[in-house]
Design a protein that fits this description.
InterPro entries: DUF3027. With 243 residues, the chain is α+β, with helices and mostly antiparallel strands. Helix content is 17%, strand content 21%. The chain is built from five helices and nine strands, in the order H-E-E-E-E-H-E-H-E-H-H-E-E-E. A hairpin with a 2-residue loop joins strand 1 (22-32) and strand 2 (35-42). The longest helix has 12 residues, at 5-16.
Length: 243
């Protein structure tokens, strides 16, 4: 009498794993011609929803042979979340004094200064140094790096679509406290130089705004200026009867 593939798989499991960790037979799956996977429930503590998978080769006129035994998660298994690389887990503000976070070797945000420079034309300082003198910065922001920064700043708290900007009396582009930038981002951003503004010292979009705009004026009350009679008059001199 021939032995079924499930019996062969269970025997292999019993020889390979701890006693009592193999549960009921869950079924078989034909992976390809001559390749079969027998599945058994796993009863190990902490592995609810996992199953044992035994891969067998089935060749006509020959006994099935075991290829591999693995423990796999089922649809209801509890598994660890997808791995997130350390670099992708770092958020702004996570770096502490002494921490080092070098850029990737192929970081698309950076380009050699001789290739890009901070602008176009013959008068670019970085490009001039890099080509003629060999000084200055070795790397500068690439076009992709500048656009990524611009998108991040526009979508941040100092962009044009915040509650502060929507209710502001004016835009940063017309504010006397704006410090202009140079380079390719100068037509979209500046630095706030108003010490009483929330964005003081921060890069702001020219379309941002706040209540500390240089053109803002205090609102004057339109209510009546006449005051009611005082309850106790401390200004007039009281007249006494009989004097």
């Amino acid at each position: 009498m021939s032995i079924s593939t499930s019996d062969i798989a269970r025997t292999a499991l019993d020889e390979s794993v701890d006693d009592g960790s193999v549960g009921d037979h869950l079924g078989a799956t034909d992976e390809a011609t001559g390749l079969l996977t027998e599945r058994f429930a796993c009863t190990l503590p902490g592995y609810i929803g996992w199953y044992w998978a035994v891969s067998l080769s089935t060749v006509p006129d020959s006994s099935p042979t075991v290829n591999d035994i693995v423990l796999l998660p089922g649809d209801d298994a509890i598994v660890a979340p997808a791995w997130t690389p350390y670099r992708d887990r770092i958020q702004p503000g996570d770096l502490s004094p002494g921490d080092v976070l070098p850029p990737e070797e192929d970081d698309i945000r950076l380009a050699p200064a001789w290739f890009v420079g901070d602008g176009d034309g013959e008068g670019v300082v970085d490009r001039h140094f890099a080509r003629e003198i060999g000084l200055g910065r070795e790397w500068v922001l690439s076009l992709e790096g500048r656009e990524e920064a611009a998108d991040r700043w526009y979508g941040g708290e100092h962009g044009p679509d915040t509650p502060m900007a929507e209710q502001a009396p004016g835009r940063c582009g017309s504010c006397g406290f704006l410090i202009s930038l140079s380079g390719d981002l100068a037509d979209r951003f500046g630095v706030c130089g108003n010490g009483t503004a929330n964005a003081d010292g921060r890069v702001v979009a020219l379309t941002h705004g706040c209540g500390a705009h240089s053109g803002s004026r205090p609102k004057r009350s339109t209510s009546a200026t006449a005051l009611p009679d005082p309850v106790v008059d401390t200004i007039k001199v009281d007249e006494l009867e009989g004097f």
